[in-house]
Please model this.
Amino acid sequence: MLKILLQGLGGFETELLNWLQQSLPSYIPPQIIFEVSEVNLPLSSSYYNTKRLQFNAYGILSSLSTMFKNTGFFRVLALTNEDIYVEGLNFVFGLAQKPLNPFDETSLTALVSTNRLTTGLADLKSRVFKTRLLKEAVHELGHTLTLDHCVKKCVMRFSNTIIETDLKPASFCIECLNKIRVYIENMMKIFHR
Model:
């Protein structure tokens, strides 16, 4: 089995990490198991942009990649309530590292922010919020499993607005799912040799 760590950052709720641990296996191939970190990690203020009032997503990913290198996790999905951005965009729902090639054994990291997923919602524990969180988590994990953005009815469709997130499904299209299956089969052979 390949292990993915669900890692909270800052004040991210353990309850949501546990919910994701139960929900993600319905969308990700069964050779992957999810573990929840027992400790939330602090977000370094060095990645906070005081002019934008947001955290730099690339800086966070880079730091996490270094921290989780050679820890035995196949992937790390970090989650934060803070607003994140990349240069050239006002904000991002998430960001992920993609393998350099189909045989890349590097443990990669993905990051999802719930900050903009609450848009238009009074109840932050609502089904709509959790569905948005699930879609973005599956989407960013998809990138770590070699996938690019997809134009089909697929969770890998790019979302620039919360409406686009709401309209896309939480599951992969058949083409993207097949790409992930092949990649995971290759990784299983590499990790278990």
